[in-house]
Amino acid sequence: MQGIEPKLHMNLTSRIEYYRLLIEAAEDPESQPTDVATQISELGHLYEEYLLNKKNLENSIKNYRQYHNDLRKNLTVRLRELRRKARQK
Predict the structure, then answer these.
(1) pTM
(2) Could you list the residue ranges forming a coiled coil in this record (predicted)?
(3) Which among 31, 46, 39 is positioned nearest to 15, based on CA atoms?
(4) % of the chain beyond a pLDDT of 90
């Protein structure tokens, strides 16, 4: 699973910001950056959502591994005990 690299996100957001500044400098009422501003905002929200989901996924993977390892260790101990009891009979 590949993620969104922060460098790519920051590159695009800085280019969009540069574009917005150029439009403001042109002071052309027909080329107001309302559409661009909305897209910048949406992109920012999507990236924040991605970061939150990524963190949650990392935590889930960590919890799964810990639970898996604990269960494996517990099962190994129980199997050894059962084998020992079977040999003693």
Answers:
(1) 0.62
(2) 47-74
(3) 39
(4) 44
